[in-house]
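Q: Start with the shorter request: fold the first protein.
A: Done. Sequence, then structure:
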Amino acid sequence: MLPVAELRGVGPDGLTARILESTQPLILRGLVDRWPLVQAARTSQQAADAYLRRFYQGANVVAMLGRPDIDGRFFYNEDLSGFNFFPANVRLDGVLEELEDHRDDERPPAIYVGSTAIDACLPGFRGENDVDLQGRDALASIWIGNRTRIAAHYDLPDNLACVAAGRRRFTLFPPEQVANLYVGPLDFTPAGQAISLVDFRQPDLARFPRFAEAQEHGQVAELEAGDALFIPSTWWHHVEALDRFNVLVNYWWRQSPGYMDTPTNALMHAIMTVRDLPPAQRDAWRALFDHYVFDQDEQTAAHIPPAARRVLAPLDADATRALRAQLLKRMNR
C-alpha cells in the first residue's frame, strides 16, 4: 500500500477549496496542533478527560461496548446474525471513568463512543476547538474510546477527521475497489454503513482472495494528535485507534444541496426493482440509467420545451419535494 499524500503548514483557518473538494485523500499535518484539547491530551489522559468535562452538561451518549476477547474489533458475530458488541445509552462522564479504570489493563474491554454531535453533547467546545470550512454546512462529531478497530466502510459526505488525542491509522481504498473488499449485508450493519468482512489485521486470502488486489490500490495514513485527514466522499476507510485513550473530531458535509436524497436509497430501490429482471430487461434499464443519469448532459432533454421538461430539468428544493411525494404515493399503492 502507498502512503497518503501529505500537506504541511495549513492551520484551521487555511483550508481551501482545493483541499476540501479533493478527490484523493490528503493528510494535513499539524492542522489542529493548537487546539486546547490536543495540548491537554499531550499532557496526559487525565488532562484531556478534565478538559472534556468542562463542557459536558449531562447529555447521554451511545457507547458501543465489547468484551476483551474481541480485541477492539467491533464486528458481527460468527454467523452474521448479530454483533459482537452491545450499545448502551449512558452518560459521557461514566464512559470517561470506564476508560480511566481500564487504562492499564493488558486486555481491556472495548469502549467506543461514536459519532456524537458535539454541539449537543459538549456545548461550547467548538468555541475553542474548531476549523473554518469556508461556509460549508458541516456536522461536527466526536469519537472517544480506547484501542478499537472499525471495519472498512464508506460515507456519503466528504469527511475531515481531526485527531485530538492518541494515534490513528486509516487504511483507504478508492470506490472502484468495492468488489475486492467483500462487503457484508447492505441492510444489516453494525453502525448504519455496510462494511468489509475482511479482518485487516489478519486478512484471510484463502477466503477473500481479491483483497490482495485491493491492497495494491490501498493508501495508509498514520496520524498523531494534531493531524487531520481529508477523506473524499465514498472512499472506503478502515480506522484503528492505536492508544489507550483516543479522541477524534470529524466534520461531514456534502457538495450537493441538502434537499437531495441519499443515493443509497436509489441503490436499494434498484436492487428491489432491477437486479433480478431477465438479462435483456436489465440491459434495457442499464441503457436508461446511462441515458438519464450517468451520461446525462444538456442534450438529454434538448428536444423538449424547457417549460415541459419537469424532472428532466435541473431539480430545486420544491421540485425535489414534489418528486419525493410522487414516489412515496407510488410505493404505498
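Q: Next, the second protein, separately.
A: Sequence, then structure:
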Amino acid sequence: MIVKLNPQTREDELDKLTLTLKQMELDVTLLPHTKGITLELHGIVTDDKLELITRLPKVIKTEKIQSPYKKASKQLHPDPSVIEVGNIKIGGGHFAMIGGPCSIEDKDQLEKTAEYVKEAGGNMLRGGAFKPRTSPYSFQGLGKSGLDIMSSVGQKLDMPIVSEVMSIDQIELFKDVDMFQVGARNMQNFDLLKALGKTNKPILLKRGMSATIQEWLMSAEYIMSEGNENVILCERGIRTFETTTRNTQDLSAIAIVKELSHLPIVIDPSHAAGRRDIIESLSLAAIAAGADGLIIETHPDPDHAESDGAQSLYPEQFKQLTEKVWKLHAFMKRLEKNRADQEII
C-alpha cells in the first residue's frame, strides 16, 4: 500500500507516524522517486488498519499497489528512470545507439567494428563472448578471452561495453563490462536474475521469445527486489506464426512498457528481423514509437561472420542507419518539447 502525506510534514512528525505504522506490524519504506512525501507499506492491511491509517495526522491519501511488479511499476516511480552505463545515459530523453558484432571473433575484428561504430555515431559497443546457440555445434564464443578483448577495445575508444552473461558462475568474469545482458533464453532464469540483483551494474534484460509483457516485468522485478534498480528492458522480437522474419518485432511493447513502467526500453531489430534488409525500417519505427535506444548487430564482413551474418549490417549500412537514427531522435525530442510547452500554456 502507498500512503501520501502532507508535503509540509516535519521530520519529527514523520518519525512519529512511522512508529505508529510499525506498531501495526507494518514495514515502512520512504519512496524516493515520488513527488511530495510518500510511504510504501509492507504487511497485511486489514480494513480496521486501513481506517486507522486514513485518520492519522498528515495522511492525505492511501492507494493500493495495483501491479504485482512493485519496483518496476510506474505507480511507485512516476518519472522515467535514467540509467547510467559508463559515460552514457539511457532513458528520460537520453538515447543509446549500441552497435557491434553478434560474436567476438578476434581483436582485429572487434577493433575494426568498434572504430566505425563510434565514427558513425554509436555510443556503446556490444559483442558476445559467451554465445547461447540453438545448435551445440555452432560457434559458442571465445569466453573469457573475448571479454578481455572487449574490455581493451572499449577502454581504447572510451565506449561502454555490453555482453551477455549466461550463468551465475560467469558474473565475476564481467568485472570490466559496463552492462550485463540477459538473453531471451535466460529471462526466467530466476537464480541468475537474483544474483545479478545483488550487483550494482546495469542489466539489459531481453524479453523471452514467448513471454508476455507482465512476465517480462516480473523478471525485472526479480532483479530489482534484490537491490539493483539499474534495469533496461530490451524487446528483441517475439515468436509468432510468421516465417518471413526470424521473429516479430512487437512495437506495441514500447507504448505498453511506457504506460506501465518507468524502466527504459531498448529495441533489438536485428534479432526481430533476422535479415538486414528491413533493420532500418524497424529501427526508425521503434524511435517514432518512443524507444530509448537500439542495439544493432554489425560486422566488418558479415558474409564471413561466425554467427548471425545474415542479420548483421555492413559498415556502410550501419553508418547510414545511425545518421537517420540521430536525426529522427532529435526530431522526436523537439516534438515532445513542443507538446509539453503547449500543455503548460
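Q: Describe the second briefly.
A: The chain has two domains: 2-63, 83-341. The chain is about 35% helix and 15% strand.
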